[in-house]
Amino acid sequence: MDIDQIAITILKLRRELTACLSLHCNSNLIKIHFILLNPGMKSAEQDWGPSDQAAQQSYFLKEEFHYLDVTQIRKFTIFDMFHCPLACLRNNLCLSLNVASSRGTEGKFWCELLSSDKNRNAENYHKNTSSHHFSILRSPCSSSPCQNGGTCIPNFNSNTFDCLCKESFLGELCEKAVKSCKEVYEVNKSNVSKLVSLHLGSQPTTVLCHMGDFGCGDGGWTPVMKINGNKSTFHYDSGYWSNKIEYNTAGGETGFDSQETKLPTYWDTSFSKICLGMKIGGQIRFTVINMKASSFYSLIADEKYRNTSLGRDTWKKLIGSEASLQRYCNTEGFNVICGGSDFSKARIGTATNNQDNCLSCDSRIGFGTGGQYDPYNTCGNEATREPDNGDKHIKAMGYILVY
Q1: Host domain of residue 200
Q2: What does the pLDDT read at residue 5?
Q3: Backbone torsion region of residue 190, taken as left when φ is above 0, otherwise alpha when ψ lies between -120 and 50, otherwise beta
């Protein structure tokens, strides 16, 4: 704000305040909002311009033709009533003020700044035709209670406040850093997907929070990984599954596209549901695993097999009508290895066999896959040796989110 704008603001506030001080407004609650200028700047009125660098707001309760007879901090005369409440605001000891109800012989008003108020000195408070009394109501926001850049909204009637938090913070005082999209959804109940900064470590990570039901049910879904089946980045044997190293975090901001990513949410976000999606030829299909865990890392990094119970038909739905699997074994879950390391395996998925055992699986559907016959198909469907819908080599773009 430049000096001309400041001058206009001051004059506007002066007119509004003077009208109320002179009994020409209906309300007895007067709001004073004034600008504290940057050091070195000069106000349109040199004698009132404060030296601090901020903005302040206070309310005065106007009581016409009353006087509080207590020790004064200061008494002075002014041509403009505007100066009296501003002088009180600038003095930390000032709790109320008396001001003349009319101008004196020199055309001035007298003003008294007081270090007490009528509640503390009720016996000294009385009617007086020559003055008005103003009690300053300190804003409940004056102590800046809202943390992390939150905006304090005062309620002067109840002397309380509410904090309007920035997107990445929650809590009564905006004291809680958001760590998942679920937290944002449960506060706002909005189905509009949006970018949110999650506090998962020393630096915030911005992700696209998928809100509402896009195929996995209502909620705020936090992205964890995106895997391109044509690339070896997240092959079953990749170290990314067992470490806490992120990969292309910018990919977490772009939705269901072809950018691969591994986000800090892999090791630092707890959940009760997992949303799995595969995109093939522009068509995305989803399924949900109901499972509680402290993180995705806790389910996979230790290399231990953990079973799920979706069933082969549910895994095939991720692929669509072209899906194919062998008929036997049907092992599924996390860290699935069916036979030796050369056979079908998946970090999340299912592996099947043409024999009634799990010793030499040749088919799979999953994420972070490997093994014969195409070890470079890392997300999608591989099926050979008598599968139920013919041999398949389908590579997909995979999406993993949690709630």
Answers
A1: 181-402
A2: 42
A3: beta
